[in-house]
Amino acid sequence: MAAVAPPATFPRLAPLGLVSPGVCPAGDEVWASLLSSNALFATAGECPPADGVSVAHRASLVVGQSPSAVVVTCADSRLSPELLFARGLGELFVIRSAGNTSADDSTVASVEFAVKNLGSPLVVVLGHSSCGAVAAAVATAADPKAMAEQPPTLAAFVKSVLVAPVVAVKQKRGGVTGDDFMAACEVENVATSVRTLLTSSGWLAKARVAGTVKVVGAMYDLATGLVSEC
Ligand SMILES: [Zn+2]
């Protein structure tokens, strides 16, 4: 299947520039397969194959799992990695939180577990359009009291984790406004999460350089249903 062009609303990320990625053919193959399935999901509504959720398949997974990819993504109900990549039980190792961050140890440890012990050759940090967590960060960056009515843990999380990418976009792309600014913040939030993951886990960074795992940042467009690498 032909490569899917990234949505115009998602400015491409600057190179991460942390480590030189190694060549990971297994990760490349899985990523190409996921994007191909996503294109069918977006255009034809393809769902996970029936045998991927069958009673027999479920029974076969009792003894273990070998997911082909790890997906770190947002908790937003409008996206589900298994649906948008048309994958069944046991195929994706999914870690979700508001704003698809890698800021806490449980996320980093979960990624390490899947790559080391389950053999996943691909880690995808997946952000999305119209992300409420990023919108909260944009509001907080403009007005520190914007989250004053919210529960304190939520407000503190937005302030301590999610505002930094917004500030970075303001510094790098000062003239961008409106929807373009929001899209740039969503992409920068993914980039920040990838960087955090690789700086928090020296083990994962080494595995990436060694070519045993591929790490990519990507965006999901709610309107088109398409995932694009960023
Ligand atoms: Zn979100």
Automatic annotation (TrEMBL):
Entry note: cofactor: Binds 1 zinc ion per subunit.
Matches recorded under PROSITE patterns: PROK_CO2_ANHYDRASE_1, PROK_CO2_ANHYDRASE_2
GO terms classed as biological process: carbon utilization
Pfam assignment, any one: Pro_CA
Signal sequence residues: none
Reaction it catalyzes: hydrogencarbonate + H(+) = CO2 + H2O
Similarity section: Belongs to the beta-class carbonic anhydrase family.
Function statement: Reversible hydration of carbon dioxide.
Protein's recorded name: Carbonic anhydrase
Lineage: Eukaryota, Rhodophyta, Bangiophyceae, Bangiales, Bangiaceae
